[in-house]
Write a structure and sequence with these properties.
The protein has 409 residues and is an alpha+beta fold. Helix content is 36%, strand content 33%.
Length: 409
């Protein structure tokens, strides 16, 4: 027993010693120093601005069109006899494009001529008959007048018992017969007038058919209605064509224009320029070639975020449907500021350097701007911009309001 107690005392001594050492070490350990994270600073470049009146430039993408574009069609049933043009040919007004076989149209023309001659003959015969009937009617009326006078004379004589009743009755009968004959002649004359009107209408119809046949015969030669370039030819010699079938498509290469959509944000200034009859010049480029032009009018309807503008083109060397680039100067805008493309965020936001931090400003994009000898820039406007403001031109992916920055040269 004494031995067991001794071992227990030793174990308790070790335990107490360990606890004392632990508490001593814990009390004497150094305290940890917590470092506060520092705010990051981004290096940027900035430009000092001076708002003033400037003319923005816009770049548009359009297509060459024309004021005159026509698809010529067949007017008659015929075979194609000759096709002297090919796609891409330039032709003058009235040049032959397609020759149709005129044989069938010639037959129809000659038949129409014969019909008109027959109508003329019938009308001439009826006029002669009507002339005779009118002359006969005049004589009939004179005879009727004489018969009436004879009845009146014999009636007076009969009242004095100088003639018999039989003589008076015979005279009255003769008067009635003459009256009937006169009425029949008047009916014949009236019927003749109706026949004349009918035959005259038939003659006019025959004359119209002749003019139509003559026109169809002329249309077997399909000619250019104006100076043009040939887009395509749809037939070949030997083809059978029917009225209304397309033969060739042409366009007037002396009346070219460019159609390009103008975004809505530019329309206000352009409408003001057009309304004031200002010359809105434009440069039109296709490949390495360029031509001068000018905005003539705006479309009556819009869509897709803009309105189509039509530009006069001072050239006949372009082909229709060619894609072109249109560059034009807009009317000058006050308090405009040109900035590098890198300064613009989300199409309409820039940042000003103020007290070591970014200050965001929403701007209106007016168009492009290029001074002599400098790179193209974007022209913007905002009433918040003041002369001497420093606008950050280094594009920061994490740019936000209040971001800490420092300027570098």
């Amino acid at each position: 027993m004494p031995r067991l107690k001794k071992k227990t005392a030793i174990a308790l001594g070790f335990l107490v010693t360990g606890v004392v050492l632990y508490l001593g070490l814990k009390a004497t350990k150094p305290s940890a120093q917590v470092e506060q994270p520092s705010e990051p600073v981004f290096s940027v470049r900035a430009v000092s601005i001076t708002p003033q009146e400037r003319a923005p430039t816009i770049t548009l993408y359009g297509r060459v069109t024309t004021l005159k574009r026509a698809t010529l069609t067949a007017a008659v049933n015929a075979d194609v006899a000759l096709v002297p043009v090919r796609p891409g040919n330039r032709v003058s007004a009235n040049d032959l494009l397609i020759q149709l076989d005129p044989a069938e149209a010639q037959i129809a023309f000659e038949q129409a001529q014969a019909d008109l001659q027959q109508a003329d003959a019938q009308l001439q015969l009826e006029r002669a008959r009507q002339k005779t009937d009118l002359s006969a009617l005049s004589r009939e009326r004179r005879l009727l007048t004489l018969a009436e006078s004879e009845v009146s004379r014999l009636t007076n004589l009969q009242n004095r018992n100088l003639v018999s009743d039989a003589q008076l009755d015979a005279t009255k009968k003769n008067f009635q017969l003459q009256a009937l004959s006169t009425e029949q002649r008047e009916l014949t004359v009236a019927q003749g007038a109706a026949r004349l009107a009918q035959l005259d209408a038939q003659r006019q119809s025959a004359e119209a058919r002749l003019r139509r046949a003559e026109l169809d015969l002329q249309r077997t030669s399909v000619r250019a209605p104006f100076a043009a370039a040939v887009i395509q030819v749809m037939v070949s010699p030997g083809d059978r064509v029917a009225p209304g079938q397309a033969l060739t498509e042409i366009y007037d290469n002396t009346a070219l224009e460019v159609r390009a959509q103008i975004p809505n944000r530019f329309l206000h200034n352009l409408r003001q320029g057009l309304n004031s009859a200002e010359h809105l010049a434009a440069n039109i480029q296709a490949g390495a070639d360029s031509w001068s032009g000018a905005l003539q009018r705006l479309a009556a309807s819009g869509g897709g975020g803009g309105v189509d503008g039509y530009f006069a083109l001072d050239s006949v060397d372009l082909e229709i449907d060619t894609n072109v680039t249109v560059t034009m100067d807009l009317p000058s805008v006050p308090d405009a500021v040109p900035l590098p493309f890198e300064a613009i965020y989300d199409l309409s936001r820039i940042y000003r350097y103020r007290d070591g931090r970014l200050n965001g400003i929403t701007v209106q994009r007016l168009g492009d701007f290029k001074a002599d000898g400098s790179a193209p820039r974007i022209l913007v406007h905002s009433p918040q911009l003041q002369a001497g403001d420093q606008i950050v031109v280094t594009h920061l992916p994490n740019a936000v309001e209040g971001l800490r920055v420092q300027l570098i040269e």
